[in-house]
């Protein structure tokens, strides 16, 4: 078992090193989310954005639209130069590859979110400082679900002609329950409502996170048969 | 295959009077609902379509898992056929629902958990069908489609129980429990449930067989091209 986790750690290390050398994925995700926030700013002009009803939705639009770019990239790099074949030839469990890709995706998405939130707060004048821990927890829970089903489906999009166009089409419908719950809970956080009032939403997120992670670990093998 | 087709054609002959009978039961035999009036009669179609779509997506789950375990294309074609029928039924749910909602709630649509999750299910299988059309000649398609089919079918319980878990406008599901329904209404409901379920079986089997013919045609075409090349 320790060997398994060492494999996962090595794969994560490889991907993070690759990303650090090139910084392509992070730069494109972060830049896109900055652009989105600026577009929101233009769209709403100087009007105050309601922290309960509008801000959470806008924030999660920024997260998901930018996030889908990264999800596609982390798998697409393996398709270049036959890297994926080499990975599949390595004497390691396929689920280790899934877990590694999933962890890398969570890390990259988290960095993008950390860049987005302060900018979102300043440009759209939504105060996030009082609820930062809650917001971080919600973003993490939502991102885990997004990354798990996204990692699984990015194997389809990365090997297809349509490439990054295909991923959101397949991913967003499955991602609806988690994003609905995340948006609701973010609304609770931004308006200072206690988290325990949203127990139902937490249950929904956690159930979907667990189901998608389990499905991803079990089904990843099938996706990668070449 | 021939025998199965004959069986289904026999079923179709029963279905023609069956559908007319179900219409009679829903519009004539069943009493007028006291508070909602005649618009309630859409319930005799809306609910069977919804339950029928759940059954179809159950078949999608079984057939997708079956394909991944056995790797026979027949399972994959069964999953495809079930998705098409389930998608059609979900579309009918989403069309009949608003007609009732406009009369009962005064709006065509609200974003409550039941409606949202049904729309989500429809979108998931719309993307499934998109993937199938777009990757039609890709040998990896059956695997990809099976995974997507499993992920989609996992959502069916959520759609069914969403009306119980969350506070929704949508009426709670009462069909799978007894009591509460006027006996004449219950009879009408059972008739239309039976007819709509059998219709689904007929559509599913025919689509499945059609998929097999399509596969055979593609094989023949490939062979003809092969000979022309020579």
From TrEMBL, chain A:
<comment type="function">
    <text>Required for the export of heme to the periplasm for the biogenesis of c-type cytochromes.</text>
</comment>
<feature type="transmembrane region" description="Helical">
    <location>
        <begin position="201"/>
        <end position="224"/>
    </location>
</feature>
<keyword id="KW-0472">Membrane</keyword>
<dbReference type="GO" id="GO:0005886">
    <property type="term" value="C:plasma membrane"/>
</dbReference>
<keyword id="KW-0813">Transport</keyword>
<feature type="transmembrane region" description="Helical">
    <location>
        <begin position="135"/>
        <end position="153"/>
    </location>
</feature>
<dbReference type="InterPro" id="IPR026031">
    <property type="entry name" value="Cyt_c_CcmB_bac"/>
</dbReference>
<keyword id="KW-0201">Cytochrome c-type biogenesis</keyword>
<dbReference type="Pfam" id="PF03379">
    <property type="entry name" value="CcmB"/>
</dbReference>
<dbReference type="GO" id="GO:1903607">
    <property type="term" value="P:cytochrome c biosynthetic process"/>
</dbReference>
<dbReference type="GO" id="GO:0015232">
    <property type="term" value="F:heme transmembrane transporter activity"/>
</dbReference>
<keyword id="KW-0997">Cell inner membrane</keyword>
<keyword id="KW-1003">Cell membrane</keyword>
<dbReference type="GO" id="GO:0017004">
    <property type="term" value="P:cytochrome complex assembly"/>
</dbReference>
<keyword id="KW-1133">Transmembrane helix</keyword>
<feature type="transmembrane region" description="Helical">
    <location>
        <begin position="98"/>
        <end position="123"/>
    </location>
</feature>
<dbReference type="InterPro" id="IPR003544">
    <property type="entry name" value="Cyt_c_biogenesis_CcmB"/>
</dbReference>
<protein>
    <recommendedName>
        <fullName>Heme exporter protein B</fullName>
    </recommendedName>
</protein>
<feature type="transmembrane region" description="Helical">
    <location>
        <begin position="165"/>
        <end position="189"/>
    </location>
</feature>
<comment type="similarity">
    <text>Belongs to the CcmB/CycW/HelB family.</text>
</comment>
<feature type="transmembrane region" description="Helical">
    <location>
        <begin position="26"/>
        <end position="46"/>
    </location>
</feature>
<feature type="transmembrane region" description="Helical">
    <location>
        <begin position="58"/>
        <end position="77"/>
    </location>
</feature>
Automatic annotation (TrEMBL), chain B:
<dbReference type="GO" id="GO:0005886">
    <property type="term" value="C:plasma membrane"/>
</dbReference>
<feature type="transmembrane region" description="Helical">
    <location>
        <begin position="81"/>
        <end position="101"/>
    </location>
</feature>
<keyword id="KW-0472">Membrane</keyword>
<dbReference type="GO" id="GO:0017004">
    <property type="term" value="P:cytochrome complex assembly"/>
</dbReference>
<feature type="transmembrane region" description="Helical">
    <location>
        <begin position="186"/>
        <end position="205"/>
    </location>
</feature>
<comment type="similarity">
    <text>Belongs to the CcmC/CycZ/HelC family.</text>
</comment>
<feature type="transmembrane region" description="Helical">
    <location>
        <begin position="113"/>
        <end position="131"/>
    </location>
</feature>
<keyword id="KW-0812">Transmembrane</keyword>
<dbReference type="InterPro" id="IPR003557">
    <property type="entry name" value="Cyt_c_biogenesis_CcmC"/>
</dbReference>
<dbReference type="InterPro" id="IPR002541">
    <property type="entry name" value="Cyt_c_assembly"/>
</dbReference>
<dbReference type="InterPro" id="IPR045062">
    <property type="entry name" value="Cyt_c_biogenesis_CcsA/CcmC"/>
</dbReference>
<feature type="transmembrane region" description="Helical">
    <location>
        <begin position="42"/>
        <end position="69"/>
    </location>
</feature>
<feature type="transmembrane region" description="Helical">
    <location>
        <begin position="12"/>
        <end position="30"/>
    </location>
</feature>
<dbReference type="GO" id="GO:0020037">
    <property type="term" value="F:heme binding"/>
</dbReference>
<keyword id="KW-1133">Transmembrane helix</keyword>
<feature type="transmembrane region" description="Helical">
    <location>
        <begin position="143"/>
        <end position="166"/>
    </location>
</feature>
<protein>
    <recommendedName>
        <fullName>Heme exporter protein C</fullName>
    </recommendedName>
</protein>
<dbReference type="Pfam" id="PF01578">
    <property type="entry name" value="Cytochrom_C_asm"/>
</dbReference>
<dbReference type="GO" id="GO:0015232">
    <property type="term" value="F:heme transmembrane transporter activity"/>
</dbReference>
<feature type="domain" description="Cytochrome c assembly protein">
    <location>
        <begin position="19"/>
        <end position="167"/>
    </location>
</feature>
<keyword id="KW-0201">Cytochrome c-type biogenesis</keyword>
């Amino acid at each position: 078992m320790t060997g398994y986790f060492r494999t996962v750690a090595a794969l994560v290390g490889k991907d993070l090193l690759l990303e650090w050398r090139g910084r392509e994925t992070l730069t494109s995700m972060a830049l896109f989310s900055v652009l989105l926030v600026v577009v929101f700013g233009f769209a709403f002009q100087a009007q105050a954005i309601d922290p309960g009803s509008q801000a959470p939705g806008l924030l999660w639009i920024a997260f998901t639209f930018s996030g889908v770019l990264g999800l596609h990239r982390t798998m697409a790099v393996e398709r270049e130069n036959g890297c994926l074949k080499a990975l599949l030839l390595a004497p390691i469990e396929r689920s280790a590859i899934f877990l590694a890709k999933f962890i890398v995706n969570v890390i990259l998405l988290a960095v993008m979110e950390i860049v987005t939130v302060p900018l979102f707060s300043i440009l759209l004048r939504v105060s996030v400082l009082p609820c930062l821990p809650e917001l971080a927890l919600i973003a993490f829970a939502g991102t885990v679900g997004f990354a798990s089903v996204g990692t699984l489906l990015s194997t389809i999009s990365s090997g297809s002609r349509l490439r990054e166009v295909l991923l959101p089409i397949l991913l967003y419908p499955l991602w609806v329950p988690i994003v609905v719950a995340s948006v609701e809970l973010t609304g609770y956080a931004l308006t200072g409502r206690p988290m325990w009032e949203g127990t139902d939403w937490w249950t929904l997120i956690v159930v979907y996170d667990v189901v998608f992670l389990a499905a991803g670990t079990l089904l990843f093998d099938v996706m990668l048969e070449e | 295959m021939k025998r199965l087709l004959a069986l289904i054609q026999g079923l179709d002959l029963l279905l023609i009077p069956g559908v007319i009978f179900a219409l009679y039961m829903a519009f004539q035999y069943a009493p007028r609902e006291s508070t909602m009036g005649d618009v309630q009669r859409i319930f005799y179609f809306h609910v069977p379509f919804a339950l029928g779509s759940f059954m179809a997506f159950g078949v999608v789950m079984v057939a997708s898992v079956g394909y991944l375990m056995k790797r026979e294309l027949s399972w994959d074609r069964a999953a495809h056929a079930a998705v098409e029928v389930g998608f059609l039924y979900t579309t009918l749910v989403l069309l009949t629902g608003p007609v009732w909602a406009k009369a009962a709630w005064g709006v065509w649509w609200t974003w409550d958990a039941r409606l949202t999750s049904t729309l989500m299910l429809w979108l998931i299988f719309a993307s499934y069908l998109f993937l199938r059309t777009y990757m039609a000649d890709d040998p990896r398609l059956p695997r990809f489609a099976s995974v997507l089919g499993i992920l989609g079918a996992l959502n069916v319980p959520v759609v069914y129980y969403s009306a119980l878990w969350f506070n929704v406008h949508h009426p709670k599901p009462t069909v799978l429990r007894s009591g509460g329904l006027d006996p004449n209404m219950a009879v009408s409901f059972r008739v239309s449930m039976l007819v709509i379920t059998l219709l689904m079986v007929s559509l599913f089997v025919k689509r499945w067989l059609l998929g097999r013919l399509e596969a055979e045609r593609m094989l023949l075409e490939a062979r003809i091209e092969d000979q022309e090349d020579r």
